[in-house]
Design brief:
Blueprint: H1 3-16, H2 20-42, H3 46-60, H4 68-90, H5 103-112, H6 120-128, H7 132-142, H8 148-155, H9 159-177, H10 183-189
Length: 194
């Protein structure tokens, strides 16, 4: 377990005991990743969906059981449910992306792709071209920093399916980058077997 997840777990316990400063730590730790993920799913409506998700997170926090990593997965599940509901209400079958993707949330992904000089806008455009399920796996893994079993729980899919979506997403990103020899670099950067 990472030091960030340990600190997050401590903040969760304190926030559950009513510590407002600890809840602020939770928000500052998790919100950038959630917002980046939601931008990839619902586009410019990400802030509204995130606000609805955080209302539920605050309301349900006393019932949460788990550590810092579990909290990230739990919040991602809530955000995903709100995003899916938002898309259903809009009648949209896929995400819409635009200039609203927040660079801070996507900078981590941009720098995990081959060549740390890849601009954030390029990473955003690449992710936007992936099928939704592949984009979701990539965003959950590299923007929210979840592991495969947690992504499987968040998405309600078996781990082998998540692994397949991750591989396909990795290969698609490599093809979109256009360099034939970059495939293994993309796979390594995204934590996929080559």
């Amino acid at each position: 377990m990472s030091a960030d997840d340990l600190a997050l777990g401590t903040a969760v316990a304190q926030a559950q005991d009513g510590d407002e400063a600890a809840f602020e730590v939770l928000y500052r730790s998790v919100q950038p990743g959630l917002h980046g993920y939601l931008c990839g799913i619902v586009g410019e409506d990400a802030e509204d969906v995130a606000a609805a998700a955080w209302r539920e997170i605050a309301r349900e926090l006393p019932r949460f059981r788990g550590d810092g990593h579990g909290f990230r997965g739990w919040t991602a599940s809530i955000a995903r449910r709100h995003a899916r509901g938002h898309l259903r209400r809009r009648g949209a079958s896929h995400r819409t992306t635009g200039s609203s993707w927040p660079p801070p949330a996507m900078d981590h992904l941009a720098h995990t792709l081959p060549g740390a000089t890849l601009p954030t806008e390029t990473a955003q455009a690449l992710i936007a071209q992936l099928p939704l399920a592949q984009a979701e796996v990539v965003l959950l893994r590299h923007v929210i920093c979840l592991d495969e079993p947690t992504i499987a729980r968040v998405m309600g899919r078996p781990s082998p399916v998540v692994r397949l979506l991750a591989r396909r997403g990795t290969r698609s990103l490599a093809r979109l980058l256009g360099a034939g020899d970059v495939t293994h670099g993309v796979a390594r950067a995204l934590g996929e077997p080559t």
